[in-house]
């Protein structure tokens, strides 16, 4: 739920409750005041009535008018000396309706005999007044509610504008790029503070990212340089004419170890770079076509190992990703499928609209297929295999939202990308 | 054994002495490169720092400059930019431990001719220096002649004892690599890398090197050439006069 919507809902609910309570209270107050008024007038009339009775000691019922009707009834049984107000309905003489009256009942002695006297006063006018006031009040409160609701919406929208602005800027911010976070400025102190904090965090992030990246690169550089030196020295050394057989054996070992280490270093550096998302360039690529092109690079070795290549392309698997990573991904998968193939084996490339599948013949896995994509998991103990190829593949897939799965059936290894 | 040939080989190939500047802060590596290239007949000078390099390129003319990008007191890119301004004819090869695409693109953008990632093979560097000088000085339009082998570079044609010999693409590349590294022991790995690049690092590629060499040797001998390819046990091969 959006902030504005949430605020509006809470505001609407709270206002409705408050206005309802205010309305009810107002209604009761008006009603109470009108009753007070009516009752005080009834009391005045009671005094008038009593004064009249005292002087004349008699009462003639003249009940023609509905208003101010005084009803005098002789009481025989009990004489209760009480004064009570009640609401009552008296039927209208002309219309078949019952009109509301307020009635004051009391007992008095007229000419020595007890009477119950009821003085009534019509409430029609008062009720109409209450109705009119209530209607006006509902209308005004409703108007107030609606207008403040819209005012509040517009105001909140305006007030929160810098916030949404900042949010958009933060969303746009990419710490792998050199561009700093755009400054967030508004007249509101809190948003300015938020902006300052965000800017600081952003520049720290960029700084950390840069230093991490530099460290990885510098470390690699520092390692590659002595390795280059070993390589160069070995190459110079093998130029001497009088090398014995065990000399060449040792040199070969040193040379291999140095090369292995260099490749290992490059592999780990690549993993770190993928981890740090240093491959930010994005392109819409056709992975199936790319795989086909990559296979051309491997023509020699396929011919050499006498591997049967079959390609089945039923569509192009398009994916937006870094072209460098796509190339590494496919190169690793294909060279893996060749390395673990046997001479005279098969390599199959299948592609569809949503997948690329590379399968190859080969010996069954000795280790757990679940751990196939882990770092330094090697099938062969051959010195040529580093155990990083599939780890790099997995890392690239994780980073580019590609699903990779491995299957082995009928002595064919199948790796599927989708 | 062939001191004169070695010393004069560059002069023989290009008609004059070729001067190379090696800008590399790692002294051992700089020494290896200069030793190796001097042995080929190049005249080499070394600059270990940015300022040395800066001074040397403003004082002397070089045919080729090999530049390391990371120097203690400066950036190799700046040297290349200066070089491009004052001596545009100089060929430039970057050697760097950084193998990011951005660095490679930037290097080519500001005018370097080649980019090699450390660690590299000296034989590969040598071949690239020679090919670069050839491109720069003769527009690639000269024949490469050694003994009874003649390679017409623009047409990619090979003549053994003046008889045209059909070589496959890889065999041709292999022959050129050998011709750039006459009388030098080449490791199988450097040959494999030269032919197939970095990606093909497996035992299979070494087998492939073997079979390509066998074919090349057969084709040369068939046309009446001598068996110039000498195997060095455990290490690789050497192209040399028998």
Your description of this structure?
The complex is a heterodimer of chains A (418) and B (242). Chain A has helices at 3-56, 124-172, 189-237, 245-275, 287-297, 299-304, 323-339, 389-399, and strands at 70-74, 84-91, 98-110, 113-122, 283-286, 308-313, 318-321, 346-352, 355-361, 404-409, 412-417. In chain A, strand 8 and strand 9 (355-361) form a beta hairpin. In chain A, the strands form 3 sheets. Chain A has a 5-stranded mixed sheet with strand order 6-8-9-11-10, with helices on one face. In chain A, strands 1-4-3-2 form a 4-stranded antiparallel sheet. A two-stranded antiparallel ribbon of chain A has the order 5-7. Chain A has 8 helices and 11 strands. Chain A folds into 3 domains: 3-144, no CATH class; 189-275, Methane Monooxygenase Hydroxylase, Chain G, domain 1, CATH 1.20.58; 283-417, Heat Shock Protein 90 (2-Layer Sandwich). With 242 residues, chain B is of the alpha/beta class. Chain B folds into 2 domains: 3-138, 3-Layer(aba) Sandwich (Rossmann fold); 143-239, Orthogonal Bundle (Arc Repressor Mutant, subunit A). Helices cover 47% and strands 23% of the residues of chain B. Chain B has helices at 3-14, 27-39, 50-59, 76-86, 101-109, 122-138, 169-180, 188-196, 203-222; strands spanning 19-23, 43-47, 64-68, 70-71, 74-75, 91-96, 114-117, 143-146, 149-152, 157-160, 163-165, 185-187, 229-232, 236-239. In chain B, the strands form 4 sheets. A 5-stranded parallel sheet of chain B has the order 2-1-3-6-7, sandwiched between helices. Chain B has a 4-stranded antiparallel sheet with strand order 8-9-10-11, covered by helices on one side. Chain B is globular and about 55 Å long. Residues 1-7 of chain B have low confidence and may be disordered. The A-B interface holds A 217, 220-222, 224-225, 227-233, 235-236, 238-239, 241, 243, 245, 248-249, 251-252, 255, 258-259, 262-263, 266, 297-298, 300-301, 304-305, 324, 331, 335, 338-339, 382, 384 and B 1, 26, 28-29, 32-33, 35-36, 39, 70, 97-101, 117-123, 170, 184-185, 187, 189-190, 195-197, 199-205, 207-208, 211, 232-236.
């Amino acid at each position: 739920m959006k902030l504005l919507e949430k605020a509006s809902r809470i505001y609407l609910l709270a206002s409705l409750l408050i206005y309802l309570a205010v309305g009810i209270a107002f209604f009761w107050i008006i009603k109470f005041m009108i009753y007070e008024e009516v009752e005080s007038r009834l009391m005045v009339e009671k005094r008038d009535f009593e004064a009249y009775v005292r002087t004349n000691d008699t009462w003639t019922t003249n009940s023609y008018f509905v208003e101010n009707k005084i009803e005098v009834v002789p009481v025989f049984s009990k004489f209760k000396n009480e004064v009570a107000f009640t609401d009552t309905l008296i039927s209208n003489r002309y219309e078949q309706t019952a009109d509301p009256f307020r009635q004051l009942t009391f007992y008095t002695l007229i000419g020595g005999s007890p009477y119950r006297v009821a003085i009534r006063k019509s409430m029609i006018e008062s009720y109409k007044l209450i109705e009119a006031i209530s209607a006006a009040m509902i209308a005004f409160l409703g108007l107030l509610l609606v207008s403040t609701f819209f005012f509040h919406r517009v105001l909140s929208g305006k007030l929160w504008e810098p916030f949404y602005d900042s949010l958009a800027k933060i969303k746009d911010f990419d710490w792998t790029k050199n561009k700093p976070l755009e400054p967030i400025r508004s007249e509101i102190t809190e948003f300015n503070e938020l902006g300052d904090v965000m800017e600081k965090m952003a520049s720290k992030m960029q700084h950390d990212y840069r230093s991490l990246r530099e460290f990885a690169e510098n470390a690699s550089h520092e390692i590659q340089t002595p390795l280059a030196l070993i390589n160069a020295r070995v190459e110079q050394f093998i130029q001497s004419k009088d090398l014995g057989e065990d000399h060449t054996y040792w040199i070969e070992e040193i040379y291999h170890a140095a090369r292995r280490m260099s490749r290992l270093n490059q592999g780990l550096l690549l993993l770190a770079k993928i981890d740090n998302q240093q491959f930010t360039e994005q392109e819409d690529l056709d992975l199936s076509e790319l795989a086909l092109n990559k296979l051309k690079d491997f023509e020699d070795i396929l011919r050499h190992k006498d591997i049967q290549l079959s390609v089945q392309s039923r569509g192009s698997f398009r994916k937006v990703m870094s072209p460098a990573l796509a190339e590494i991904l496919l190169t690793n998968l294909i060279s893996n499928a060749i390395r673990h193939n046997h001479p005279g084996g098969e390599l199959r490339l299948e592609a569809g609209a949503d997948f690329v599948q590379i399968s190859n013949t080969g010996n069954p896995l000795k280790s757990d297929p679940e751990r196939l994509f882990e770092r330094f998991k090697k099938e062969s103990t051959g010195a040529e295999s580093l155990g990083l190829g599939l780890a790099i593949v997995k890392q690239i897939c994780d980073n580019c939202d590609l699903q990779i799965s491995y299957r082995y059936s009928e002595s064919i290894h199948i790796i599927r990308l989708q | 054994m062939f001191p004169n040939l070695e010393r004069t080989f560059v002069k023989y190939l290009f008609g004059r002495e070729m001067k190379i500047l090696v800008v590399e802060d790692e002294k051992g590596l700089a020494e290896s490169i200069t030793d190796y290239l001097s042995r080929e007949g190049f005249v080499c000078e070394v600059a270990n720092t940015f300022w040395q390099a800066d001074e040397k390129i403003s004082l002397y003319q070089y045919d080729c400059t090999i530049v390391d990008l990371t120097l203690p007191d400066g950036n190799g890119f700046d040297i290349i930019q200066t070089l491009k301004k004052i001596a545009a004819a100089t060929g430039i090869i970057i050697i760097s431990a950084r193998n990011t695409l951005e660095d490679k693109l930037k290097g080519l953008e500001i005018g370097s001719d080649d980019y090699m990632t450390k660690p590299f093979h000296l034989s590969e560097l040598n071949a690239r220096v020679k090919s670069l000088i050839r491109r720069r000085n003769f527009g690639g339009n000269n024949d490469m002649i050694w003994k009874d082998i003649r390679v017409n570079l623009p047409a990619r044609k090979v003549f053994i004892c003046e008889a045209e010999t059909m070589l496959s693409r890889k065999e041709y590349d292999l022959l050129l690599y050998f011709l750039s590294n006459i009388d030098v022991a080449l490791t199988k790995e450097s040959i494999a890398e030269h032919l197939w690049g970095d990606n093909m690092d497996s035992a299979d590629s070494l087998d492939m090197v073997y079979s390509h060499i066998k074919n090349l040797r057969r084709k040369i001998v068939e046309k009446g050439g001598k068996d110039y390819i000498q195997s060095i046990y455990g290490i690789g091969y050497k192209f040399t006069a028998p």
